[in-house]
Specification:
Number of helices: 4
Strand order of the largest sheet: 6-3-8-7
Shape: globular
Order of helices and strands: EEHEEEEHEEEHH
Distance between the termini: 34 Å
C-alpha cells in the first residue's frame, strides 16, 4: 500500500478522535493526528540516528534521532510504537517500548499528538530501505556535535529537547 493511502484517526486539541482521513490528505490539509517517537539505543547505550529517504511525505532526506511514525486508525500509541520501531530498525522480537510522555507538536503547518518512548535494541538492525537512507549509532556527545550541522526533522528536534528536559525534571517537557 502507498503510505499516503494509510488511514489515520484525526484528533482534536485534547487528542480525542473527531474523524478519519488518509495520511496524504492529513498531510496536505494539516489535519491533527497521532505519532509515536521512539528513542532506540543499542546495548552500549548509543542512540540510533538515521537520514530519512528522499521519498518520505514529510521532511524527506532529513536526519532524525527517533524511529517511529504515524499511529494508524484504531491503533493505540503503544501498538504503533512497537510496530514502527520494529519496522524501521528491521528487527522482530523487540521489547515493548517504554512510554515516557506525550505532547502536542505544532509547526510549519503540521500538527500531531506525539507520544515519546524509549527502547533498548540489542538485536542487529537492518533498517527498512523505504524509510531509512543511512544510519549509525552515536554516543550522546557525538550527537551533540552534529546537532548544529545536520538538517534535522523539526518534530524530532523538538522531541529531543523535550526529552532532555523531561529527564532533567524540567517543567513543560510533556503533558
Amino acid at each position: 500500500m502507498n503510505p499516503a493511502d494509510e488511514v489515520l484517526d484525526i484528533v482534536d486539541e485534547n487528542d480525542e478522535v473527531v474523524g478519519q482521513a488518509t495520511r496524504g490528505e492529513a498531510t496536505a490539509r494539516g489535519l491533527r493526528h497521532r505519532c509515536a517517537f521512539i528513542e532506540a539505543r543499542d546495548g552500549a547505550g548509543r542512540l540510533f540516528v538515521h537520514r530519512r529517504t528522499a521519498t518520505k511525505l514529510v521532511f524527506p532526506s532529513h536526519y532524525d534521532m527517533f524511529v517511529g511514525g504515524v499511529v494508524g486508525a484504531g491503533e493505540s500509541y503503544d501498538e504503533a510504537a512497537l510496530r514502527e520501531a520494529e519496522e524501521e530498525l528491521g528487527v522482530s522480537g523487540l521489547p515493548r517500548p517504554t512510554p515516557l510522555f506525550k505532547f502536542l507538536y505544532e509547526g510549519d503547518g503540521h500538527s500531531w499528538w506525539s507520544y515519546v518512548y524509549e527502547v533498548r535494541c540489542e538485536l542487529p538492525v537492518r533498517p527498512q530501505r523505504e524509510e531509512v537512507a543511512w544510519h549509525t549509532f552515536l554516543t550522546d556527545s557525538e550527537l551533540s556535535e552534529r546537532l548544529p550541522d545536520w538538517t534535522w526533522v523539526p518534530d524530532g528536534l523538538e522531541t529531543y529537547h523535550r526529552l532532555r528536559d523531561f529527564r532533567a525534571g524540567s517543567p513543560g517537557a510533556g503533558s
